Amino acid sequence: MSTIRPEATTEKLTTEKWQDKRSLIAFWFFGLCNNFGYVIMLSAAFDILKEQEPNTEPDISNITTVFPLSNFTITSTMVPNSRKCNILSTGAILLADILPTLFIKSTAVFWIHRVAYNIRVPMSILFVVAAFITVATSVATWMSLLGVVFASISSGIGEITFLSLTALFHKNTISTWSSGTGGAGVIGALSYAGLTGAGLSPRHTILAMLLVPALMAVSYYIILVHPNSIKSRKCQTEDQSPLLKQPTDITPDEDSCNDSEEVTGTTAATSYISRLSTRQRLMLILPLLKYMIPLFSVYVAEYYINQALFELIYFEDIWLTLAEQYRWYQVDYQLGVFISRSSVNLFHTKAIWVFPVMQVINAVFFSVEAYFLFVPSIWIVFAVIFFEGLMGGAAYVNAFFSISEDVADEVKEFSLGVASVADTSGVCLAAFISIPVHNFLCKLPLPY
Question: Using CA of residue 428, residue 429, residue 435, residue 441, what is the dihedral sign?
């Protein structure tokens, strides 16, 4: 009778811990790289568009003052008591960046289970490479906007892919993925501003960012320990119920597993989903609504604030210019998002409804402030913006972490991917709302 040596058990546990650490690191980089292109493209596309604007003489009957920002231009007609704001809301640009992502996520329920991870991940990488190259070599407005669309497609495929992929790993990969997406906002904004501020042109800065998709490839193909390579996934049978959690600690017999799984990058769970009818897959979405509706509501309020109101809230005659105030609003917001998206292991709640309530209160506060400009100090605005970022990031990470805990294993990949349509559709609706609200407030005279 053979016995298991203690040394062998210790070695196995050490190996598993190392594999878990590699997975956590890989998912942090996945979050960073997937959202990095989104952040960079919004800033860079505006700079490229600015270069492409024709140099025309201004009409003396409508003289304007221009305040250059890192990612848009504020134009204020020189009318007494007028507001300094952009005549075109940044919500219009946001639409170009979010609509392709929304289309991908909203239709994913019909096709995503048929596409293997080993196809989805390269697609995401190739689209962000195409985005960077297109914008960096752009010679016309349509090329710059096409680059934004490519970045949006990459982000959409990437988010639904990597969120689904977390179902095959330790649940803390949700936390590290979310932390990485939060870090993308801070690191992306600072790196772009830093490189351009150091004298590098926007075009060359964009080309330098090609290191990011390379890092994503390294993370997926080298850092990440794929489930098939460690044989940690069980084979699932036809009669398993999607409504009940099943034990996942069964070691599969190699003869009973599908040999094509390792080649295609599919899993037993995606095989289960592929056997369901469209109606059955749609029915699986119903239990997710308790997570998706709060997440949707948070993002509507959050991006309404960011796109319609941020640039309308400013303080004159302080140590920051109008352009610098907007930049620091963005950095402040991204810091809040980064901290809260990294905090689920310290603070986790299933009461996700709290976050949309708080975010709507924030939206009301900023709406009143944008109209009356009554807040006496920019530090108060900084504090509320930071709180806004905390609420948005906390809603995101707690929603997906709850799904990973509550949903049955067989449908976890599917559920995590499909639930991501909530934040994107919220951003899209916010963009539509932001345009008329921004334009209305922009035309109002100053309240003082």
Answer: negative
Structure token digits, residue 216: 């994503």
- In angstroms, the CA 19 to CA 224 distance is 8
Contact 411, 269 (CB under 8 A): yes
Q: Residue 215 — very low, low, confident or very high, per pLDDT cuts 50/70/90?
A: very high
Give the Cα separation of 32 and 213 in Å (integer): 10
DSSP state of 438: H
**Interatomic CA distance for residues 206 and 32, integer angstroms:** 16
Which tokens in the block code for residue 16? 């598993």
- Would you call 402 exposed, middle or buried from its count of C-beta atoms within 10 A (0-12, 13-18, 19+)? buried
| CA–CA dist 296, 284 (Å, integer) | 18
Helix (H, G, I), strand (E, B) or coil at 76: strand
Comparing 268 with 17, which gets the higher pLDDT?
17
Q: Supply angle C-alpha 91, 432, 299, rounded to 5.
A: 80
- Gyration radius of the chain's alpha carbons: 24
Q: What percent of the chain has pLDDT over 90?
A: 33
Q: Give the separation between CA 54 and CA 43, rounded to whole angstroms.
A: 20
Amino acid residing at 160: I
Q: Which amino acid is at 347?
A: F
Please give the DSSP secondary-structure letter assigned to residue 139: -
Residue 68 falls in which region: left (phi positive, over 0), alpha (psi -120 to 50) or beta: beta
